[in-house]
Amino acid sequence: MLKLFEHEHLDVKRLSDEETAIEVRNLSLQFSDKPVLNDISMRIPKHRITALIGQSGCGKSTLISCFNRMNDLISGCRYQGEIILGGRDINHKKENVSRLRTQVGMVFQRPNPFPLSIYENVCYGLRLQGVNGRRQLDDTVEQALVDAALWDEVKDRLFESAQVLSGGQQQRLVIARALALKPDILLLDEPTSALDPLTTLYIEELMAGLKKRCSIIIVTHNMQQAARVSDYTAFLHQGRLIEYSDSDSLFTMPHKKQTEDYITGRYG
Ligand SMILES: Nc1ncnc2c1ncn2[C@@H]1O[C@H](COP(=O)(O)OP(=O)(O)OP(=O)(O)O)[C@@H](O)[C@H]1O
């Protein structure tokens, strides 16, 4: 199925259901009385990297946290609108949120390995699902570490503590932990902001390879990074989606003045 449009240039305003990983319909969100997201509608393509950019506090992290219902953990959070994933509205009260979080993996700004071995970090989610067969765990751990470009560096010390890895290795470990659950969508919330430039480039190359396996949505403050790695970019301002298009167009010929002001550094 993927091969149908793997290399095609897609118009995000006209994505078919087959090409869409997530469709957001009129999503608004408030924390207590504070409106944070305002009537956002967009389709995010499958097997592409989509970047969310915008000033600090504009709602980027809140928006991606809607995609695996992480905001449910925040008291006073209310939202309206639909988020269609795999043909269902994940905002529906009957949504199985554990299953959703398997389908939609998330990686945060600071690498957060558990105080366990490298091996146990990667198979953590599988064990929670009740998978205990050694063969299946071994195979999954190896594949996830290969996919996260970490296998060669850790294959001889899988049972050592994950805490001794470098920051870049820890971030790849956390990506491997998400990949072990074979997510359809991977959410990356400023995944390289705590890393040095070389390690950042390494993670960016990794992302480019991963989009064959899943659809990637990345929040970044770094516009060079958004332009380098993402196929599509959405610009948010004060909780509204201002402009959303292929990254080349958005960064070279923005249609809206607010986008232009932001990408040229006039504010934010
Ligand atoms: N748990 C919370 N309770 C109340 N308000 C919150 C909470 N989390 C975020 N907010 C508010 O929601 C707004 C959007 O925050 P969010 O973290 O989504 O922005 P952002 O664009 O990701 O910012 P940054 O780039 O600084 O990470 C901000 O005004 C923030 O203060």
Automatic annotation (TrEMBL):
It comes from the Bacteria. One of its GO terms (biological process) is phosphate ion transmembrane transport. Residues 22-263 form the ABC transporter domain. CDD domains: ABC_PstB_phosphate_transporter. GO terms for cellular component: membrane. Its EC number is 3.6.3.27. Keywords: ATP-binding, Cell inner membrane, Cell membrane, Hydrolase, Membrane, Nucleotide-binding, Phosphate transport, Translocase, Transport. InterPro entries: AAA+_ATPase (IPR003593), ABC_transporter-like_ATP-bd (IPR003439), ABC_transporter-like_CS (IPR017871), P-loop_NTPase (IPR027417), PstB-like (IPR005670). GO terms for molecular function: ATP binding; ATP hydrolysis activity; phosphate transmembrane transporter activity. It holds the Pfam family ABC_tran. PANTHER family: ABC TRANSPORTER I FAMILY MEMBER 17 (PTHR43423), IRON EXPORT ATP-BINDING PROTEIN FETA-RELATED (PTHR43423:SF12). This is Phosphate ABC transporter ATP-binding protein. It comes from Alteromonas aestuariivivens. The lineage of its organism: Bacteria, Pseudomonadati, Pseudomonadota, Gammaproteobacteria, Alteromonadales.
